[in-house]
Design goal:
alpha/beta; seven-stranded mixed β-sheet; Peptidase_S51; protease; serine protease; Class_I_gatase-like
Length: about 220
Protein backbone atom coordinates (compact mmCIF):
# COMPACT_ATOMS: atom_id res chain seq x y z
CA UNK A 1 0.00 0.00 0.00
CA UNK A 2 1.32 3.42 -0.98
CA UNK A 3 -0.24 6.54 0.54
CA UNK A 4 0.72 10.21 0.58
CA UNK A 5 -1.52 12.11 3.00
CA UNK A 6 -1.10 15.79 3.69
CA UNK A 7 -2.78 18.87 5.06
CA UNK A 8 -2.46 20.91 1.87
CA UNK A 9 -1.47 19.50 -1.49
CA UNK A 10 2.19 18.43 -1.54
CA UNK A 11 3.13 20.18 1.69
CA UNK A 12 6.90 20.55 1.80
CA UNK A 13 7.46 16.96 0.69
CA UNK A 14 6.70 16.58 -3.01
CA UNK A 15 9.91 14.59 -3.33
CA UNK A 16 8.38 11.83 -1.21
CA UNK A 17 5.28 11.63 -3.39
CA UNK A 18 7.47 11.52 -6.48
CA UNK A 19 9.41 8.63 -4.96
CA UNK A 20 6.19 6.67 -4.45
CA UNK A 21 4.87 7.34 -7.95
CA UNK A 22 7.95 7.27 -10.14
CA UNK A 23 7.65 8.91 -13.54
CA UNK A 24 4.67 11.34 -13.58
CA UNK A 25 1.76 10.04 -15.66
CA UNK A 26 -2.02 9.95 -15.65
CA UNK A 27 -3.75 10.97 -12.42
CA UNK A 28 -7.38 10.44 -11.43
CA UNK A 29 -8.42 13.70 -9.79
CA UNK A 30 -11.33 13.13 -7.38
CA UNK A 31 -12.92 16.45 -6.33
CA UNK A 32 -16.07 15.14 -4.62
CA UNK A 33 -15.29 16.69 -1.25
CA UNK A 34 -16.53 19.90 -2.94
CA UNK A 35 -19.89 18.51 -4.05
CA UNK A 36 -21.83 20.65 -1.56
CA UNK A 37 -20.42 23.79 -3.22
CA UNK A 38 -21.53 23.61 -6.87
CA UNK A 39 -20.59 27.21 -7.60
CA UNK A 40 -17.00 26.53 -6.58
CA UNK A 41 -16.64 23.00 -7.97
CA UNK A 42 -15.02 23.79 -11.33
CA UNK A 43 -12.65 26.33 -9.79
CA UNK A 44 -11.65 23.74 -7.18
CA UNK A 45 -10.83 21.24 -9.92
CA UNK A 46 -8.77 23.81 -11.81
CA UNK A 47 -6.85 24.76 -8.68
CA UNK A 48 -5.51 21.20 -8.51
CA UNK A 49 -5.15 20.55 -12.23
CA UNK A 50 -2.73 23.45 -12.67
CA UNK A 51 -0.07 22.41 -10.10
CA UNK A 52 -0.30 18.76 -11.13
CA UNK A 53 0.28 19.64 -14.78
CA UNK A 54 3.23 21.84 -13.86
CA UNK A 55 4.85 18.77 -12.33
CA UNK A 56 4.33 16.71 -15.48
CA UNK A 57 1.15 14.80 -14.54
CA UNK A 58 -1.89 14.37 -16.77
CA UNK A 59 -4.88 14.83 -14.42
CA UNK A 60 -8.29 13.54 -15.48
CA UNK A 61 -11.35 14.27 -13.36
CA UNK A 62 -13.14 11.20 -12.01
CA UNK A 63 -16.48 12.27 -10.56
CA UNK A 64 -17.72 9.65 -8.11
CA UNK A 65 -21.30 10.76 -8.76
CA UNK A 66 -20.99 9.12 -12.18
CA UNK A 67 -20.40 5.75 -10.49
CA UNK A 68 -23.18 5.62 -7.89
CA UNK A 69 -24.22 1.99 -7.59
CA UNK A 70 -21.54 0.93 -10.11
CA UNK A 71 -18.51 -0.09 -8.06
CA UNK A 72 -17.21 -2.57 -10.63
CA UNK A 73 -17.00 0.16 -13.25
CA UNK A 74 -15.33 2.47 -10.76
CA UNK A 75 -12.75 -0.18 -9.95
CA UNK A 76 -11.95 -0.71 -13.64
CA UNK A 77 -11.66 3.04 -14.14
CA UNK A 78 -9.36 3.69 -11.18
CA UNK A 79 -7.19 0.65 -11.89
CA UNK A 80 -6.14 2.32 -15.15
CA UNK A 81 -4.41 5.13 -13.26
CA UNK A 82 -1.04 4.83 -11.50
CA UNK A 83 -2.14 7.50 -9.00
CA UNK A 84 -5.30 9.07 -7.68
CA UNK A 85 -5.42 12.58 -6.21
CA UNK A 86 -8.22 13.25 -3.71
CA UNK A 87 -8.54 16.94 -2.91
CA UNK A 88 -9.84 18.67 0.20
CA UNK A 89 -13.28 20.02 1.00
CA UNK A 90 -15.91 18.55 3.31
CA UNK A 91 -14.74 15.21 4.73
CA UNK A 92 -18.28 14.02 5.44
CA UNK A 93 -19.44 14.74 1.89
CA UNK A 94 -16.42 12.90 0.51
CA UNK A 95 -17.05 9.92 2.80
CA UNK A 96 -20.67 9.77 1.65
CA UNK A 97 -19.65 9.83 -2.02
CA UNK A 98 -17.13 7.07 -1.33
CA UNK A 99 -19.99 4.99 0.07
CA UNK A 100 -22.44 5.74 -2.74
CA UNK A 101 -19.95 4.86 -5.46
CA UNK A 102 -18.35 1.91 -3.67
CA UNK A 103 -14.98 3.68 -3.51
CA UNK A 104 -14.80 2.72 0.17
CA UNK A 105 -14.59 -0.93 -0.95
CA UNK A 106 -12.78 -0.48 -4.25
CA UNK A 107 -9.87 1.61 -2.98
CA UNK A 108 -8.79 -0.73 -0.17
CA UNK A 109 -8.67 -3.59 -2.70
CA UNK A 110 -6.63 -1.62 -5.22
CA UNK A 111 -4.28 -0.35 -2.52
CA UNK A 112 -3.81 -3.82 -1.02
CA UNK A 113 -2.83 -5.03 -4.50
CA UNK A 114 -0.43 -2.06 -4.84
CA UNK A 115 -2.22 -1.16 -8.07
CA UNK A 116 -1.92 2.60 -7.53
CA UNK A 117 -0.76 5.39 -5.24
CA UNK A 118 -3.35 7.25 -3.18
CA UNK A 119 -2.50 10.91 -2.64
CA UNK A 120 -4.97 12.95 -0.64
CA UNK A 121 -4.95 16.20 1.27
CA UNK A 122 -7.19 17.63 3.99
CA UNK A 123 -10.53 15.81 3.53
CA UNK A 124 -8.80 13.45 1.10
CA UNK A 125 -6.44 12.42 3.89
CA UNK A 126 -8.96 12.43 6.76
CA UNK A 127 -11.32 10.03 4.97
CA UNK A 128 -8.74 7.23 5.29
CA UNK A 129 -8.63 7.43 9.09
CA UNK A 130 -10.55 5.16 11.50
CA UNK A 131 -13.07 7.71 12.80
CA UNK A 132 -14.36 11.11 11.70
CA UNK A 133 -15.80 12.26 15.03
CA UNK A 134 -14.45 15.67 15.91
CA UNK A 135 -14.14 16.89 12.33
CA UNK A 136 -17.63 18.36 12.59
CA UNK A 137 -15.94 21.32 14.27
CA UNK A 138 -14.49 22.22 10.86
CA UNK A 139 -16.67 20.40 8.29
CA UNK A 140 -20.47 20.59 8.35
CA UNK A 141 -22.09 17.12 8.35
CA UNK A 142 -25.42 18.75 7.46
CA UNK A 143 -24.13 19.33 3.93
CA UNK A 144 -24.22 15.58 3.29
CA UNK A 145 -27.98 15.20 2.98
CA UNK A 146 -28.37 17.99 0.45
CA UNK A 147 -25.29 17.03 -1.57
CA UNK A 148 -25.53 13.24 -1.41
CA UNK A 149 -29.06 12.32 -0.36
CA UNK A 150 -27.93 10.13 2.54
CA UNK A 151 -27.14 10.67 6.19
CA UNK A 152 -23.56 11.40 7.25
CA UNK A 153 -21.23 8.49 7.98
CA UNK A 154 -18.87 8.81 10.91
CA UNK A 155 -16.41 6.02 10.16
CA UNK A 156 -13.41 6.46 7.89
CA UNK A 157 -11.86 3.76 5.76
CA UNK A 158 -9.38 2.83 8.50
CA UNK A 159 -6.39 2.51 6.17
CA UNK A 160 -4.23 4.39 8.67
CA UNK A 161 -4.35 3.85 12.40
CA UNK A 162 -4.76 7.42 13.69
CA UNK A 163 -7.06 10.33 13.09
CA UNK A 164 -5.69 13.29 11.12
CA UNK A 165 -6.14 16.95 12.00
CA UNK A 166 -5.08 19.15 9.07
CA UNK A 167 -4.38 22.88 8.81
CA UNK A 168 -2.65 23.46 12.14
CA UNK A 169 -1.59 27.14 12.30
CA UNK A 170 -2.81 27.58 8.73
CA UNK A 171 -4.22 30.75 7.14
CA UNK A 172 -7.01 28.52 5.84
CA UNK A 173 -8.17 28.12 9.48
CA UNK A 174 -8.06 31.64 10.92
CA UNK A 175 -10.32 30.71 13.85
CA UNK A 176 -7.94 27.96 14.94
CA UNK A 177 -10.63 25.25 14.97
CA UNK A 178 -8.18 22.57 13.90
CA UNK A 179 -5.75 23.43 16.70
CA UNK A 180 -8.63 23.21 19.17
CA UNK A 181 -9.58 19.80 17.80
CA UNK A 182 -6.01 18.55 18.17
CA UNK A 183 -6.01 19.86 21.74
CA UNK A 184 -9.25 17.98 22.42
CA UNK A 185 -7.83 14.75 20.99
CA UNK A 186 -4.73 15.13 23.17
CA UNK A 187 -6.83 15.71 26.27
CA UNK A 188 -8.95 12.64 25.51
CA UNK A 189 -5.96 10.45 24.70
CA UNK A 190 -7.13 9.89 21.10
CA UNK A 191 -4.20 8.96 18.83
CA UNK A 192 -3.88 11.43 15.97
CA UNK A 193 -1.53 13.30 13.72
CA UNK A 194 -1.77 17.09 13.82
CA UNK A 195 -0.48 18.40 10.50
CA UNK A 196 0.61 21.85 9.46
CA UNK A 197 0.30 22.64 5.78
CA UNK A 198 3.96 21.62 5.37
CA UNK A 199 3.51 18.14 6.86
CA UNK A 200 2.67 14.75 5.39
CA UNK A 201 2.16 11.08 6.23
CA UNK A 202 3.81 8.57 3.88
CA UNK A 203 2.87 4.90 3.88
CA UNK A 204 5.02 2.62 1.74
CA UNK A 205 4.24 -1.03 2.28
CA UNK A 206 4.57 -1.83 5.96
CA UNK A 207 6.34 1.43 6.76
CA UNK A 208 4.56 4.58 7.93
CA UNK A 209 6.63 7.75 8.11
CA UNK A 210 5.47 10.99 9.69
CA UNK A 211 7.02 14.03 8.03
CA UNK A 212 6.00 16.54 10.60
CA UNK A 213 7.33 19.77 12.09
CA UNK A 214 5.48 19.71 15.41
CA UNK A 215 4.65 17.21 18.13
CA UNK A 216 1.59 15.02 17.59
CA UNK A 217 -0.11 12.67 19.99
Amino acid sequence: MRLFLSSYRFGAHYDRLAALVGVPGRVALIPNACDAWPDAWEAAVTSDVVPLRKLGYQPETVDLRDFVGRPEELERTLAAFPMIWVRGGNTFVLRAQFARSGADLVLPRLLAADALVYAGYSAGACVLTPDLHGLESADDPAEVVSACGIEPLWDGLGLVGRRIVPHIDSPTDPAGQCALLAEFYRAEGIPHWALTDDDAIVVDGERTEVLISRAAS
